[in-house]
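QUALITY CONTROL LOG
STEP: pairwise intake check
CHECKER ROLE: data steward
CRITERIA: each record must contain a sequence immediately followed by its structure tokens, with no blank fields

ENTRY 1 OF 2
RESULT FIELD BELOW
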Amino acid sequence: MANVSVAAEWQLLYNRYYRKPELYPMRWKHIDLSRNKVACAPFGGPIAVIRDDSKIVQLYAESALRKLRIFNSAGVQISETVWKHPGGRLIGMAWTDDQTLACLVQDGTIFRYNIHAELVEPSISMGKECFEQNVVDSVFWANGVVCLTESQRIFCVADFKNPKPHELAEPGLEDSAPLCMAVIEPQYVMSGNVEVLLGVTEGGLVVVEEDSVQRVETVGGEVLGPLQKLAVSGDGKWLAAFTHDGQLLVMPTDFSEIKFACNCESALPPEQLAWCGMDSVVLYWDDMLLMVGPIGEPVRYLYDEPVILIPECDGVRILSNSSMEFLQRVPDSTVSIFKIGSTSPAALLYDALDHFDRRSAKADENLRLIRSSLPEAVETCIDAAGHEFDVSRQRTLLRAASYGQAFCSHFQRDRIQEMCKTLRVLNAVRSSEVGIPLSIKQYKLLTPSVLIARLINAHQHLLALRISEYLGLNQEVVIMHWSCSKITASLAIPDATLLEILLDKLRLCKGISYAAVAAHADKNGRRKLAAMLVEHEPRSSKQVPLLLSIGEEDTALAKATESGDTDLVYLVLFHIWQKRPALEFFGTIQAKPLARDLFITYSRCYKHEFLKDFFLSTGQLNEVAFLLWKESWELSKNPMASKGSPLHGPRIKLIEKIQHELEVSTKQAIFVSEKRWYWLKVFALATIRDWDALEKFSKEKRPPIGFRPFVEACIDADEKGEALKYIPKLADPRERAESYARIGMAKEAADAASQAKDGELLGRLKLTLSQNTSASSLFDTLRSSFQGVS
């Protein structure tokens, strides 16, 4: 009798059975689908409802403000928000793969919402043309949309994650609007781009791609009339089309043939056309649902309320004001057990369990009949249990499988255990509070990890955690999301209290990233909580960067040095170096030996000047002097070469800083020769224009470098008067002559040159003073006298 009651609910379409169990009575109140625009997500996803602004509707006990409401599949409200967007009427809305609601308005703007009715920024624009011409129709798919403008131009966003609107090829419709529109998703097209199918009044189809337009007027030798409604199958291989004369045509999307045609006995186009899995097509008129298969008479279902068809991979969900139903083909395993009069091994095994429960000897008789096919019967019962939504029927089928397995020595013992696991998960998410009515085929296609992600997004954290633990999946994602959500929602809870709440859950998962939770706390303006959380992060590589981002540089430096990771220490050093004044930076690293040593090592290679400042600030004058010596050593052995060196200026500056702090003996302690010391000090004093100090320095003792550097320094500083103090002290008359010539004193230069009795020198001096006519004649006279003497 049980078999009869189960099979009595089925409808036969040719040789295939279909069933339409009720998944939920809808728990919403005062929702009339005919007055609203509705978007339903596949895989048992949420339902979005908003009042249709293209219809004149009567308002009952409700606000005149339009509200976007989001429900689960059982009609339990998840969230709502007031719709207050500009841009004209709402043209269409649909859910994307990641359960983001995309809403397209008349001016081509797409507003996006998450499942909690929170606006996702930024909005997407379909372009200037859509804004100017207005959008009149749209078709969404998993992650994209195409829209049609009033001027019959088609625009596309192929991927909402990377929204780049572009125009497809001109369809050439002139002023006649298409009768219907459908798309073949990019993943099912050879080119990888979306194909748009348009039914036109002239008959046939217009296939629009990125850069081409194809006209399809005949299929398999038959002329296509005007097509009123189109629907592409879930795998992109088949097209269902309703013609102007009331026929339903099914053809492959390469338009090679018409697979079958069915007269629907109504020229009025259906309000909705959808595929029921891959086996049949469902059409909906005002009060009737018609299911058409390739062979046999259609099946009719009558409704006295509006419905919405939601295509799934293995059927179609039917949403009405009062219920959610699932129309699907009855699985072969279920048919073999519950078909009236079935004598299959699985049916006999199921019947044997019934006899066993009634303590009848008929149970043993049934088992003997199917002993050779017992493994097959057990497998069929397990498979049938997986396809059931009724929990008691699942349990009975699994008991039948377990009963048969006891007499079967060659069967995988873990098959029943695996199915029990799967069904426990499915039953948990099918509860009306969660409202995700997945079939087992949908569950396997969606995968457990995606299901857990959807539960997390719906803030069903406890259920997601239990499923993760039950299936042996990583729980870190769940706990992390819960922690971040808790921080966002707990603005009134003190930091210390909230920290204890968070740690209580975070400790459940070893290796979880406290730094990521701390970063979220900082983003929400709770910097103190972030600092407290990051203290529990065991990995320095995650801890240190976050400490820097929240302004805890000193703590970051301490943690980096404790870790011994030089890369982390350098990261902190460079960060502090850029943010703090030099003296404060020097004070910070002075107390950290590792940081100080790394800074010195780096600066010796790349930042000499900064290193000198560091040594000066810490009183390490010997180190400063050593750097000076090293720089000088790298220069040419000719002391004069340092004047043109880029190191000369900084060296002088440093000498200026330390000249009053270094004793004369320092030059010996730091291994600088006396002559080089004199050169450096002369040019340092000249640079700072301390002429009194320079004169005093020249009189301390006879300079080991002579007085020429004093003269050179004064002349370079354009201080001729100062130079005259030292030129007479030059022992070599040639040097005196050249020095006098450089400051423009021709007569004195000539006198010094005459003492040298060097004709070549006189020639050089003449060139130096070539602009002075009298000086030139004087040098010529002297030169002639020298030649006469010779």
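ENTRY 2 OF 2
RESULT FIELD BELOW
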Amino acid sequence: MVLLAGVSPEPLSASGRSSEKLSLPSLQSKMKTDPEGYETELHLIHSQFNSALELFQQQAALNFSSITGVGADPTVAKDLSDRAMFLAHVTPFYPKQLAGFPSDLAAFLKSSARTLPSGLRFHVTQALILLVNRKIIDIKDTLSLFMELQTLGDRNLRKLAFSHVVHSIRRMNKNHKNEAKNRPLQNILFALLQQEDEARAKRSLITLCELHRRKVWFDDRTANAICMACFHSSSRIMIAALSFLLDYEKIENDDDDDSDASSSEDEMTQKPQVVISKEAVYKAHHKGTAASKKKKKAKLQRAIRSMKRQQRLSSETSTSSYYSPLNHLKDAQGFVEKLFSRLQTCNERFEVKMMMLKVIARTVGLHHLILLNFYPFLQRYVQPHQKDITNLLAAAVQACHDMVPPDAVEPLFKQIVNQFVHDRSRPEAIAVGLNVIREICLRMPLLMTEDLLQDLALYKKSHEKAVSAAARSLITLFREVCPSLLVKKDRGRPVDPKARPRAYGEVNVLSNVPDIELLEHEDEIDGSRDDENSDDAASISSDDGNENSDDEESQYSAEDGSEDEGIVDEEDDENDSIDENESDIGDDEEEDNDDEDKVETEEVEAEEDDDYEEVTDSSRPSDGAGDGGNVDKKSKASKRKLSDFEGQLIAADTSLRALKRLAEAKMSHTISDSTDGILSDEHFRRIKELKAKKEAKTALVQQGFKIPSSDQLSFKRVDPAKLEAHVRLRLSKEERLALVKAGREDRGQYQARTAVKQKKTGGLSNRQKEHKKVMPFAAKKAKAQRSRQEKGKKRQRSGKQFRGKKAWK
């Protein structure tokens, strides 16, 4: 019990109260209930605090404190801490009398924080935090003091000051971002971060990282300050900043099909864009044999999963849910060049160099920068026996994008192929090399040549599962990117047989609203238009000379097949159409044009033959007479046709092209009339729905995967674990037996299913409960009598059963 030392009974009796002994907590509660009645005690305790403070400062001046920081007179420190906490609690009730107390306390802690005993320093800090929480003193005036307290080496004090700074700034920005108060606080922490003192800079960096991670200071200034800490003179500060930038990004496993399958129903309800035609679902569940229905159901599930994955990636990029502090770099190119120059000249250990290398690669891929000296630097470390080779290769993959010249990456690419993929290399190295080649070609397909791809495709016959799977994934990629580089048997059934990778620097510039053509073919996608209209639309799109017409033609044919014939027939139709198209893959452009002209002339001839037959049929008399006249008319018509063939061909060609232009103008005119050139929210919503239906139909046909865009690849972080090959070695007989016995431990003893069913695990049966039921004596007697009567009747019936009439009577 702490007593009021130095309190004489005279002032207490003069105020009308008895001179009883009062403790500080009880006096504190009474002063909060009646502030005006205890002003005398307040002045008394305030004067005691000032005297204790002067006494302690005199002891410190006379060097009475020991080297360890423990004062020679502990009673003075105890009185000082108790009265400081007391005054901090009652300060809100006496704002005028204690107006100078907060500033005196902060000045005392700032001047003699290093010489104070740990207990006194902790209590004074708590008193100051109490004043800040009650908004008696501003956090702006005490932030530098609390940051200084974190560098004293006291663990409890450091934790207390750090949590107070973070929670105070969070509470200040709870309802809205208070920029007027955030700016001065940020300037204080930024100035501490730029100092040469390692302890202060480290505490400032930790505070900024925590506030940025909690999304309190989630702005460009804080992110740039953290990134600029990578250039601090202290290696510890640099490592802390690099580790924060690397650990901030979480690797998302997009290939987790099991989780997608388990939550498919929930995602279907949340995302109505996943649209599968009712006809395909009905055929998968009700038509065909059990095996064919099973295959159709599996195909539907694959299509749903692929569409969900693509929608998740697109939603992440559209809603900007992906975030990294590197996104806010004001001068990304200068940051990368400066960090790379430090990487080349530093003498840090290999782990630190790897961290710097990862940050450089991540920034290059994220901002599509060009750092040509980075790839030869990586080439020195590309060896199968190199430490952390998968992390190094993942960084090399992330540094590749479509804006980098292929000539700069080609030596690194050849180094990976020569060092990892050869016959004398281990299966793990071959699989890693093939996976890295696939990821690099996904970003820069121009690096691959035809001979190299065909050589790498031969590894699909390897007996090692990891190697064959990696080779097949490479083949699957080039079926979509450039099927002409593969051998014909490896091409499979590509969606676009004439697909080519874009040349270096080539950009698709949109001249219209994306996917606005879906509104033109809205009826075809919905399946509401009849067969004739769909055939006309397909013929119009097939006459187009652009490269995109092939995609549209295959799409329309796939849609018509899915609506008319079903999933299985549509695959057969695509096989036939693709076999016809595959013969023209290796031809030149001139030969392609010649073939197109031949096809057009054959179509014109066929149309003219049909017209001619219709004319002759209509001119034929109904009574069947005059056969000789019909023969003469046919010969004359054939002669006229042969003589005017060239003129008719030119006229038909011009008429077809005129019809095509007329149809396009009519379709564009209807859209312009309906929308007046302005698209509303309903149009964009309809475009989104039609795009989902189109993706659903193509996903049912497509066997490969959809190639992500360059922006999606830049956002996606490459996981080094996915590049590794998990080759499962062959187990011996003893190891296999050990695995079998280990699997039997948790399993119970074998029993037949009937024995398991008959084994009773619950309570008593109803018959057993009847026997134990408490009944009156009369009821028991009546029940026993009924049972005796029933037994007697049964006994009588057993001897007098009618067994049928004898035959001889």
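INTAKE CHECK: passed for both entries
DESCRIPTIVE NOTE, ENTRY 2: The mean pLDDT is 74.
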